[in-house]
Amino acid sequence: MTIVPSDYLKRCIDATVGAYRGASTEPVVVIPNGIDLEAYRSRPGVTPGGVRERRERDLVFLWPHRPDPRKGIADAVAIAARSARALPARNIRLLVPQHVDAASSAETCEFYDDAIRLATAEGVLGSLEFTPWWSGEETPDAYSFADVTLCPGNFIESFGLVAYESLACGTPIVAARVGALRDLPGHPDVHTFAYADADEATKATLIAAGGMTDPDGIRALLSEYFSFEKMQRAYVAAITGEMPEATRSASPTDDRFSLAPWCTVSGSDVYNDYGFAWTGRYELASFLHIVEMRQPGGQRFSLLAATEAGVPSEQIDMALRDGVIVRA
């Protein structure tokens, strides 16, 4: 048995290792990471360590990630800049915790220097605020202090713990639809956008900045599906053999296809998580969007249906070769 923390990872495994006919693969079981809902809860009026207190016009964005460009620091700065232009009466603050090795690692130091250069170029250097690297006990203070938590990068998250922790603390999330963040629950306080679409990202952030609409509802959802206790029980059941046998992925067919689980469609383009880029897929992308509207979460289609919809066969062949679509 293989245990993974998200449906996203299971779908990726099923579409690769599990797609080989005759291969002896063990079942893949999803046990989502658990959130300690006693620790991660709203803490009104608390100011996290190393941060100045709120003022009336402040609008606080939190980027609580390790120093990796793929986590989207450039995107976060761009969102702050666009939000500042859209809301000139507000004081936009972008909180960026500095990792513990910021003073000792040249690479880490360069990361934060780059953030300063980006903020300067965007005209929002005054919005960029470096903070201490908070401990686990202090992190709920930071989430609670912020108005919006940003996860705007293209790092391939296997679960997306930051997003769930933020929601548990009563702060809405804005995230790029990349990796497991595509599986964030459909809830009015979860705001997602197509990666690198600055307009959509800013629009989502401004909506999220209006505040949580259903904090009790999201905590109930987290308690039902992502509680620490639920995760513990699931691991005990898996280790002791008490967990129901997981279903194995069905063997793929020669005449049915689907969008690869590591891809997403926007307009005429398809984003590939592992290619880290959007590519134009034109008729195929438009067709996949229609299929998704008809079969949410499935996107299975036949070659005949695609060609009848006007998708050139060479687009199908290229998409298969590039790993944009897989046999289903």
* Secondary-structure element series: EHEEHEHEHEHEEHHHEEEEHEHHE
Helix content: 25-40%
Count the E strands.
14
Rounded mean pLDDT is 93
Quickly name the level 1 CATH class of the largest domain: Alpha Beta
Give the low-confidence spans.
none
Give the biggest sheet. 6 strands, parallel
What shape does the CA trace take?
Answer: globular
Under CATH, the topology of the largest domain can be stated as: Rossmann fold
Total tally of structural domains: 3
Strand content: 15-25%
SS field, number of helical segments: 11
Gyration radius, rounded: 21 Å
CATH architectural grouping of the largest domain: 3-Layer(aba) Sandwich
Class inferred from helices and paired strands: alpha/beta
Task: Give a verbal description of the structure.
It contains 11 helices and 14 strands. The chain is α/β, with parallel strands linked by helices. The chain folds into 3 domains: 2-33 and 228-240, no CATH class; 58-208, Glycogen Phosphorylase B (Rossmann fold), CATH 3.40.50.2000; 256-327. The strands form 4 sheets. A 6-stranded parallel β-sheet has the order 5-4-3-6-7-8, with helices on both faces. Helix 5 (161-168) links the parallel strand 6 and strand 7 (173-176). Helix 2 runs parallel beside helix 3 (106-122) and helix 2 (73-86) packs across helix 6. The longest helix is centred in the middle third of the chain and has 17 residues, at 106-122. It is globular. The relative contact order is 0.14.
